[in-house]
Amino acid sequence: MAEKKVDPATGEAYTLKELMAHYKGTYKKRELEEYWDNHCKPVKVRQSKGKATKPSKEAKPEPKAKAKAKATAKAKTAPSKPKKESKDDDEAPKGLRTGKDAGASGLAKLRTFSRCVLAEYVWLDADGVTRSKTMTMTARPVKVSDLKVWNYDGSSTGQADGHNSEVLLKPRAIFNDPFRGFPHVMVLADAWQAWDDKPAKNNTRAACAETMDMYKSLDPWFGIEQEYTLMKPGKVGLKPTMPLGFNTDGSEPAPQGPYYTGAGYNVAIGRPVADEHYKMCLEAGVKISGINAEVMPGQWEFQVGPCRGIEMGDHLTMSRYIMLRVTEKHGCVCSFDPKPKEGDWNGAGCHTNFSVTPMRINGGYDCIIKVCEAFGKVAKDHIAEYGEGNDKRLTGKHETCDINTFKYGVANRGASIRIPRDAEKAGRGYMEDRRPAANCDPYRVTNIIMKTTGECLSAEIVEAGSKTHTAFVFIKPHAVTDKVKTLVKDKLTAEGLTIKHEGSIKAELIDKKKLIDTHYGAIAAKAVKMKPSDLTVQEKAQEEFEKQFGVKWSKVMEDGLVYNAMDAAKKLGISPDELGKKYDQLKKGETIIKFGGGFYCGKVDGIYVINGFYMNMRSKFTAPGTSIYYYEVEWPAEKMSWADFRGKLLGPTDPATAPAGSLRNLIYKDWSDLGLKAQPDTGDNGVHASASPFEALAERSNWVRASVSKDAFGKALLASGVSMKMAREWFDDPAVEFEGGKKSVFDMLEDLDAGECLKKLANLLNEIIAFKLQQWSLRE
């Protein structure tokens, strides 16, 4: 009979299979297995014979479980509970709340704090030493956003002056508190100056997080082997000089040899500290993966990882803090000094194992070699980031390479970089940088490792992203017929384009997911939300306006003759649909002018209307029973420029003036034979296609959920230094300051090939960074 356990959230006894069925669709299999192993209790009382009762989501929990589940109210929140010993269930206060802390105002309303949670904030001071302070909270946080930004006296940690000492603590990661037990937590935070919200002194995490985000597409993995030495306490406030296990008479112990991975009295010295630290880290949720005794008496090592990106620094920092706490009751001092004892003894390092996706796939060994070569070119820059006093350790002896020498080799522990033998055999794997010292800042180490690797590999990624064009093409609802689909597909393939994916998207889904609103976001904003005074019309566009309409743009603005589409309909006393119909009759070069991508001005009944076509555009895409038919296409950039793709293959906006043989011209010319109800015009012009590689990425992300980090152009964009967050902001086509003026992101990229598009976006990013640096400088 299958084992049953009690689910603490419902009080019901389930088999693992029943638990899986109960939470199906709410949690992943892996999460439920972990919940079963770590939180569900074995059934103590023998179950009555007969058919097992199927679990019910309406089941009432036992009193204890009910108290713990009160805040969440629903059983489905149960698997989010933290990992803990089974005894924690009994020790958790009744009525424990989970979620967002209510702060001082919430505490003031409580009659007792007995159900509250302690949160110990941990951060790095000016010297990279962990500091901490504890607060009482009304609830146990489930996610980082549940925690508040706290503060402390930075003048006491070397991070502020006494006259302006407040420094902020911004929560970054939550760990269980292994010292106080469940439900209490420890919070890894970083420090920020309260007066200008800039990173405080030695907040190296901020810069590391930016680098990790920049190269997120490479998916960096780290594992750090933290060596440390347990020392005999000296005078308070003074650095200890004698490791545990060294003779009290000052004589040297037996040479190193038996101590490494050894066992027994006078060999494995300090094991109680190492073991307790190991268990405490596991209880906390730190990704600690092993320990071993090292080559000198009192010297040990613990390994943290594999961790991904910024997680490495967070987990190593917390593991170091836990070690310092553990030694408080063992009568010894933990030293991270790279050379804690002079003489013929090994120093203490922080060997850093590292890989990115290109190293871990078939053929990755070549990538490892390439990165090793890149490290060699900036060896001094890396050494500067790898810890103070490292010159005493990196002497070329004791399994190290000389600090002034760089070399890498397979299975060579005397090299700067060791490549595992397994990586050579398999043709893929990871590399080990043996240079970081035990006292290194993990954020600085992982930051420069990732920066050098990213810069080394990004050139290739950018180049690869520049070689292929990928666009999003769709047939508009008015033209979706079988004959048009055949025409478009044949034309695309005849011109050498490869159709990667194609399909239909129904109006109901377009409406529900607001796909058309996202697609025409900038157009919609200009038509509805923005006033004419909010718009930026470039000087050249104003000159074209005056040529076409015989009046200056500044004059019609001054006379109040310019309206957005919404206000224009009200001004003219007509419906938005009626305005749209009038707008569709306007002629390019006579009564309508294009200021930029998705930015039009048309003269309707004596006034000038911005994007009047949008008012009935949405309804065309969301009318029940209609749909669009899309094609995701790609082709070698060298075979066809983006300008030719749009100008010659697709054809300009007005199908009547489109080149012969272009898609829009063919649909316009043969509309009746193709099954259309009316001849296409500027609004209903048959087919849409992306205006640039970047706009294509934005459209594919919107319409077919293309992954930016897996897309060739997307990876190249991220490799160029553009963060995922910034890319998604630019997907909304904001107006940005660039090259001396305010410009639409989509406009400035229109018809550029992929390579030029990437360069321009990188230049835009550089201007933004330069502007921020200038602002910071002015604030100082």
UniProtKB/TrEMBL annotation:
EC numbers, comma separated: 6.3.1.2
Composition-biased stretches (Basic and acidic residues): 55-65, 82-100
Biased composition range(s): Basic residues: 41-54
Residue ranges of every copy of the GS beta-grasp domain listed in the record: 117-198
Region Disordered, residue ranges: 38-101
InterPro entries tied to this protein: Gln_synt_N (IPR008147), Gln_synt_N_sf (IPR036651), Gln_synth/guanido_kin_cat_dom (IPR014746), Gln_synth_cat_dom (IPR008146), Gln_synth_N_conserv_site (IPR027302), Glutamine_Synthetase (IPR050292), NDK-like_dom_sf (IPR036850)
Substrates-to-products reaction catalysed: L-glutamate + NH4(+) + ATP = L-glutamine + ADP + phosphate + H(+)
Gene Ontology biological process terms, A to Z: glutamine biosynthetic process
Annotated coiled-coil segments of the chain: none
Domain GS catalytic: residue ranges: 204-566
Family, similarity comment: Belongs to the glutamine synthetase family.
Protein name: glutamine synthetase
Species, as recorded: Symbiodinium natans
Gene it is expressed from: GLN1
